[in-house]
Design brief:
5-stranded mixed sheet, 9 helices, alpha+beta, elongated
Length: 180
């Protein structure tokens, strides 16, 4: 049974087998304060989980364990639910992304028009798998089931900008330009 001195987050973390977060680290970090403002604006309702996770990812760049625990505590949700949502949606990342992001659409239209070949070529060129970042931290390679750009298939999103009708040579040239 937890004592009164043990916070709800620590109790939740212990119950779910996660190490308790460092309160001192959170108190001086303005990003956590921005996250608190987002939760307050949403009246700390559990329904705001996705919006809060978006705000957290925007503030931190990715969702680490401390951030997930902070969100779980603030919205009074089990850590397992917060983690489940964070891992379900491809928009959220639990690891730091590279300096540049490359998202290859693998939806039906893109795949039929060659996105599978483009992905294979990018993996070989970068020496990484989907969801990984190059050792130098420059490029993160990801895939998405559909980005809604079927008319310009195969499509790739480079640092938030959609590029259509991408062939292997186009994608490798763009990646090499981003690495330079």
């Amino acid at each position: 049974m937890p004592t009164a001195a043990v916070s709800k987050t620590e109790t939740l973390a212990q119950a779910e087998g996660v190490a308790p977060k460092d309160k001192q680290k959170d108190q001086g970090d303005l990003r956590f304060k921005r996250l608190d403002v987002t939760m307050k604006r949403n009246q700390f309702k559990p329904d705001a989980l996705i919006e809060v996770l978006h705000a957290a990812q925007e503030a931190f760049g990715y969702l680490d364990e401390d951030v997930l625990m902070h969100v779980a505590h603030g919205l009074k949700l089990p850590l397992s639910r917060v983690y489940g949502v964070a891992t379900f949606y491809h928009l959220f990342s639990l690891k730091p992304n590279g300096e540049h992001n490359c998202v290859v659409c693998t939806g039906t239209a893109c795949y039929v028009k060659g996105s599978g070949k483009v992905m294979a070529a990018l993996k070989a060129e970068l020496g990484i798998e989907e969801g990984e970042t190059t050792a130098d931290g420059k490029i993160s390679l990801m895939s998405a089931r559909c980005i809604g750009a079927c008319g310009i298939a195969p499509a790739i999103v480079y640092d938030g900008e959609v590029a259509g009708k991408q062939q292997v040579a186009d994608a490798i040239a763009k990646i090499n330009a981003l690495r330079a």
